Amino acid sequence: MAASAPPERRPITDLHGVGPRQAERLGRLGVTTVADLLFHLPLRYQDRTRVLPLGSLRPGDEAVIEAEVVQAGTHDGRRRSLLARVADGTGWLTLRWFYFGPGLQRSLVPGARGRWFGEVRTGPTGLEMVHPEAMKEGEGDALTPIYPATEGLTQPALRTLMERALPAAAELADPLAGEGDDLPELATALQTIHRPPPEADTEALLEGTHPARRRLAFEELVARQIGLRRLRAAAGAHAAPPLAPTGRLTNALLASLPFNLTAAQERVAAEIRADLGEAHPMQRLVQGDVGSGKTVVAALAALQAVEAGWQVAVMAPTEILAEQHRASFQAWCEPLGLEVAWLSGRDRGDSRRAAAEAVASGRAAIAVGTHALFQEGMAFHDLGLVIIDEQHRFGVHQRLALREKGGGEGRWPHQLIMTATPIPRTLAQSAYADLDVSVIDERPPGRTPVETVAVPDSRRPEVVERVGRACAEGRQAYWVCTLIEESEASAAQAAEQTAAELGEALPTLHVGLVHGRLRPEEKEAVMAAFKAGELDLLVATTVIEVGVDVPNASLMIIENPERLGLAQLHQLRGRVGRGSAKSSCVLLYHGPLSENAGQRLAVMRESDDGFTIARHDLALRGSGEVLGTRQTGVAGLRAADLQRDADLLPAVQQRADALLERPEAAEVLERRWLPEGERYAAV
Ligand code: ADP
Ligand code: MG
């Protein structure tokens, strides 16, 4: 590759084999230059280094096998398939293909030897691998990277492209080079990450603690730190409308609530109250475990702004969650004579126009919605406060877009951000270096902890019966389906099938279904019916993970919980235990469990506290198992993990300080690691 331009400016089509179609697919992954590709990091690795004897295989194992074909042929079942029985002296296994060509068929003659990689599962006649990958000579000497992929772009294709791009790593700008760290050079680090050499420390790579990974994590954290500091400085220099509290509306709300605030809610509400009175924009993050009562704290902030004569926008990342806030804010604020406007992504036409008009004219004091709130054409009359729930689902840049809508006369609205992501305070300050942090570290009284049990799926019929009994007693239940490769389509299919089966097994129950493939209005209708008690049982994918509040739902079944990480399990379980009824959660696992999965389920049985669970999560992470990928990322980090890499943070702070004095170097890092919207935000 003739080094014409640096990789940062070399288009991806410069690589051999990348035409317009491939470039379009890469573009979907955010890859447009050779440098982008080099920073397209593996999500995880597969360990194909160890060949397992057939006799030792168990369902669920991902394994490399080396065996001899004993017998092969096609089979006309419901779908025609090609079957090969293979053996290695310790046992035998069936390989199965539904799609196959004559070449493959010819190669599978009795006596032929081969090496295959695949997932072991139970088939009609014993253990089998469906569509095993035939392994090439030399492959499997080292870990195999698995990349974020997209339709039409396979893992082998990505690996080949990476191979072609890697020589360019040496030409990347490296602003952190040679400043005496004991971490490897950038190019070496990338080489190791994308093409782990056989002698590399496998364990460390799988766990994300390898120096190569830490080198990239360090860069990313420095970039993030620089970006956030610039944001904070910009906000501090800006004006915001001071929102003096009169207590007229907030006191009325407090008087109308059927409960008293907890001490933690009081404290956080006071911190917010003080911030809002300032002439600079509040930038505060409220962190509180699921069920800690963040919404009412947000409502108090909203009413203070309204008292002072300003509007409030309340934004949530999903329709379901936004709808939840609409219900709360309407219930609390309409009796006080306020109009609450509703702006969702799906509403078009008259209702949308009416809502937008109420907001633009200033008649609606509070606007609740999804990202529709900051879309083109939305104008606020006098926006003084923006409240954002579950911020990690939004990029920083979306938060900034809403800021543009407000304040008037060049002023910015105040911002209140709420998250349930339990990260320790010191880390929060680093993750959200542009924010002040308040923590609601106490739960409302009278909650009985959710009783959690783990039950093997061989006892599924008992669990189904239990659901039937609970619903007969007037309780409501969730049944959550999980999948490993969470494509929306396959998750939806699994949930549909489960809903059909449960409907058949429990014919007297009203069973609803939500998954990510439904249209928003369908999703919402199902949720509304569940909330209204018209449905007894809600079968769902993990789309219900965030924020849904149905106090009467007191039983949750999570299928295949061993596939989820602790953080996600905790979020899911937080959907029950919200009312006064005793709640339970059944972790319906598929055995045999790996040691790590067993420990995760044990933590879930024993603890109900987000911080405790987060600590265990850290200790149990990264065993190389397939976990949901989302749980690993706080604030959308790509290489770093704030908990795992916490020890880097002091050095990150120092380096960020130094780099702020070198704008060109800082810019290289910001371009590399921060999404576009965040980069220009501070200027
Ligand atoms: P989260 O922090 O997960 O958003 P919510 O704000 O949805 O929690 O609150 C969970 C439930 O607890 C709601 O039904 C809410 O009305 C109730 N709640 C909030 N604060 C208190 C309190 N101090 N005492 C009793 N119940 C409360
Ligand atoms: Mg909430």
From TrEMBL:
Source species, domain of life: Bacteria
GO molecular function: 3'-5' DNA helicase activity; ATP binding; ATP hydrolysis activity; DNA binding
Annotated Helicase ATP-binding domain residues: 275-440
PROSITE patterns in the record: HELICASE_ATP_BIND_1 (PS51192), HELICASE_CTER (PS51194)
Reaction catalysis annotation: Couples ATP hydrolysis with the unwinding of duplex DNA by translocating in the 3'-5' direction; ATP + H2O = ADP + phosphate + H(+)
Top class in the EC scheme: isomerase
A Pfam cross-reference name: Helicase_C
Gene3D superfamilies tied to this protein: 5' to 3' exonuclease, C-terminal subdomain, Nucleic acid-binding proteins, P-loop containing nucleotide triphosphate hydrolases
Keyword terms of this UniProt record: ATP-binding, DNA damage, DNA recombination, DNA repair, DNA-binding, Helicase, Hydrolase, Isomerase, Nucleotide-binding
InterPro entries according to UniProt: ATP-dep_DNA_helicase_RecG, DEAD/DEAH_box_helicase_dom, Helicase_ATP-bd, Helicase_C-like, NA-bd_OB-fold, P-loop_NTPase, RecG/Mfd, RecG_dom3_C
EC number(s) given by UniProt: 5.6.2.4
Single biological process term from Gene Ontology: DNA recombination
SMART domains reported for this sequence: DEXDc, HELICc
Domain Helicase C-terminal positions: 473-619
Family: Belongs to the helicase family. RecG subfamily.
Biological role stated in the UniProt entry: Plays a critical role in recombination and DNA repair. Helps process Holliday junction intermediates to mature products by catalyzing branch migration. Has replication fork regression activity, unwinds stalled or blocked replication forks to make a HJ that can be resolved. Has a DNA unwinding activity characteristic of a DNA helicase with 3'-5' polarity.
PANTHER family per UniProt: ATP-DEPENDENT DNA HELICASE HOMOLOG RECG, CHLOROPLASTIC
The name this protein goes by in its record: ATP-dependent DNA helicase RecG
Taxonomic source organism: Thiohalospira halophila DSM 15071
